[in-house]
């Protein structure tokens, strides 16, 4: 969870309380041993402070990830991730990277719930926007291929993986190209 590094421009000064609470949540999450309840409490406290709409979406994203990865409360994870997605969608084009990343997290939640068709459509829609962010695009393609595989649509899954391999070959990223080629080999 990178909290402040890549997120907010300087103009959002009244988000400072939420940023401090996000940092507190990250401290508790990465503490040894981790204190996930405290991290969630810090994130919930953010909603009691003044913050921009974009920051509220970012907090929803972080709390959704915490619920998904570290608790068994998948419905709360789903709720917060969907709130984050809609908030980032309303925030505009400068938050596209986060919106696509949130869409990938939503896909993981929906896959665990075995709800595949809506998330397949979501990832297809976001794939056009993810091309500017190669690592997120790779994650999206792998998730999309996994969804097609779970639906026994092996031809489309294979096509997606092949497209990923050729894309990352063109981009000069041998590691991701290798992952896509290995995944492609597993289909046959």
Automatic annotation (TrEMBL):
Keywords: Cell cycle, Cell division, Chromosome partition, Mitosis, Nucleus. Its main location: nucleus. GO terms for cellular component: nucleoplasm. The keyword Cell cycle applies. Gene3D superfamilies: Tetratricopeptide repeat domain. Signal peptide: none annotated. The keyword Cell division applies. It comes from the Eukaryota. It is found in: Nucleus, Nucleoplasm. GO terms for biological process: cell division; chromosome segregation; mitotic sister chromatid cohesion. Belongs to the SCC4/mau-2 family. Required for association of the cohesin complex with chromatin during interphase. Plays a role in sister chromatid cohesion and normal progression through prometaphase. This is MAU2 chromatid cohesion factor homolog. It comes from Loa loa.
